[in-house]
Amino acid sequence: MSQPVLFEELATQNGRRIGVATLASEKTLNALSLDMVHLLTPQLRQWARDPEIAMVLLQAQGEKAFCAGGDLQKIYTSMREHHASPARDDIRGNRYAAEFFEHEYRLDYEIHTYPKPILCWGHGIVMGGGIGLMAGCSHRVVTERSRLAMPEITIGLYPDVGGSWFLSRTPGKLGAFLALTGALMNAEDAKFTGLADYRVAHADKQKVIDALLLQNWGDGDDAAVLGRVLQQAERDVAADVTFAPSALRDNFDLINTLCSGQTVPDIVDAILANKSDNPWLQKAIATLTAGAPGSAALALALQRRVRHMSLAEVFRLEFVVTLHCATRPDFVEGIRALIIEKDQKPKWNPARLADATPKWVDGFFIDPWPASEHPLADLV
């Protein structure tokens, strides 16, 4: 059986090496599994310690997706089993979910704090857990076929993997809008939000790699060396390669107005009342309409809570909230309706946003661990 992540090292002209990690589960659109996490984390740590490794390239096999999100099949099974157990109200009781999210968040944090440049080639679909991998990389490339989104509202979750932190730092009210609508972002959108740094033609990928192999690594600032190569690749995009304009930029003032309400119901009502004939906006509104009301309330509550938190504190908070989601009905129901049985008819609980009261939301923030015993207590 082939490994779901492949590793190699490329020799540069001055003797340094580039570590290459390739997600290799093309049939699942490179959905991030626990096995992939357990392969990536120790390899990244090894490369971080190796003085001969100048930088890391994180990429994926196939033309369709960098990473379409987390592998939800086992999480679904574990939630079903936990919900049927006597310990169903204890968020620590679902051992698989606790292991998966602890190690996924550790990997994401490792990338955010990595001591060497990491280039993420975010081609094709980049969603949920895929954005979790990409967001922390020092140099993030999107292509003419990149499609990014945080559509967790469709499965009864919220934008996790640090999403509470990085969405709250997008321009204006875009973070709230993206969390509520799961709106699709192209390359220009990703740059506008700060989730990507460079837009490069996918056909030029090998040229970029060839250029990286010719650089004088270790003679100065390796991050600047990588940045210059990517800037040149961005300038060299051929005239016949088309990057669609940013819908987020074009609708920025409208989005800010729609999301300026004082409460979650105010914001949701304003978005749903918009009668735009723009297909992109219509799709975003349709996603919010069909999404879990509880996820809407939880996502915005998180974004407001994390504004002045460190990234480590955010991952610790999200870990607690996510395990609460795993004990509640919406997350398992959303996966059932969207992925397992695919009937597209989730029965959300609460079914109405009015029932996702502040008291209901506060229940997701109850932390059963003393601070020193939190599974992510060592993140600093």
What does this molecule look like?
The model has no long low-confidence stretch (mean pLDDT 97). With 380 residues, this protein is an alpha/beta fold. The chain is built from 17 helices and 9 strands. A hairpin with a 5-residue loop joins strand 1 (5-11) and strand 2. Helix 2 (73-83) crosses helix 16 and helix 8 runs antiparallel to helix 9 (222-235). The longest helix has 18 residues, at 95-112. The strands form 2 sheets. Strands 1-2-3-5-7-9 form a 6-stranded mixed sheet, sandwiched between helices. The protein has a 3-stranded parallel sheet with strand order 4-6-8.
List keywords for this structure.
single chain, 380 residues, alpha/beta, six-stranded mixed beta sheet, three-stranded parallel beta sheet, 11% strand
List the helices and strands and how they pair.
Elements lengths: L4 E7 L5 E7 L10 H16 L3 E8 L4 E3 L5 H11 L11 H18 L5 E5 L2 E3 L1 H7 L3 E4 L4 E3 L13 H5 L6 H8 L5 H7 L4 E2 L5 H9 L8 H14 L11 H4 L1 H7 L5 H10 L5 H12 L2 H13 L5 H17 L1 H12 L17 H5 L18
